[in-house]
Amino acid sequence: MSAAETIRLIAETTRACRLCGLHMGRTNAVPGEGPPTAKIMLIGEGPGLHEDRQGRPFVGPSGKFLDQLLAMAGLERHEVFIGNVIKCRPPQNRDPQPEEIQVCTENYLFRQIEAINPAVIVTLGRFSMGLFLPGERIMRIHGQPRRVNGRLIVPMLHPAAALHQPQNRPLLEADFQRLPEFLAQVEHERAARPASARPAPEPEDDQPLQQMSLF
Ligand code: URA
């Protein structure tokens, strides 16, 4: 099955999902959107009020700011895949619970990642970061790319963190401005690797990248 077909099927299943209690309070599930061949995937926390109403990710105030941040990286929204850890809005925007995260990521997010196979995953906020870098602290490692299972994970603050606390805005802006550099690094490495070796995990998994300054 093509990546496009897999992504379409996952979205269809997500919209009908009843695997956890969050389906009872939703208006729309929010599967995520973007090209199935996206090189960059951004993963937020979960839908808020606006996303629940429209069934689309990051369409409220955080989304408007995210569009500005993408522009600072020379990117437009339609070039990246935007998803979330959980696909349905929790009541009163409470934190997602561990069981909700587990069932939703196993059934949807991780399958989306596998189908899209992005070169770079940007995690937005601590819940998204926690999927790949459990136990880390976002204020300590934001903007520092790490290899996890052969993929480049770039942890960043959630855009809402800058809307609530303006002192976080320059941190997010600086991290987004480095996104093209991170992508170039991975693409350079992917191109240099023999095709037969491409699916293999990187030997330096889960290590901060040491050679970024070469680019
Ligand atoms: N915040 C998120 O984490 N995701 C969205 O889709 C919107 C706001």
Automatic annotation (TrEMBL):
Biological process annotations from GO: DNA repair
Keyword Iron attributed: yes
Classification via SUPFAM superfamilies: Uracil-DNA glycosylase-like
GO MF terms held by the record: 4 iron, 4 sulfur cluster binding; metal ion binding; uracil DNA N-glycosylase activity
Residue ranges constituting the Uracil-DNA glycosylase-like domain according to the UniProt record: 31-177
Keyword Cytoplasm: no
Entry keyword set: 4Fe-4S, DNA damage, DNA repair, Hydrolase, Iron, Iron-sulfur, Metal-binding
EC numbers for this chain: 3.2.2.27
Chain spans, region Disordered: 187-215
Domain of life: Bacteria
Pfam families in the record: UDG
Catalysed conversion reaction: Hydrolyzes single-stranded DNA or mismatched double-stranded DNA and polynucleotides, releasing free uracil
Cited CDD domains: UDG-F4_TTUDGA_SPO1dp_like
Cross-referenced NCBIfam families: UDG_fam4
Record-stated family: Belongs to the uracil-DNA glycosylase (UDG) superfamily. Type 4 (UDGa) family.
Full protein name: Type-4 uracil-DNA glycosylase
Native organism: Candidatus Viridilinea halotolerans
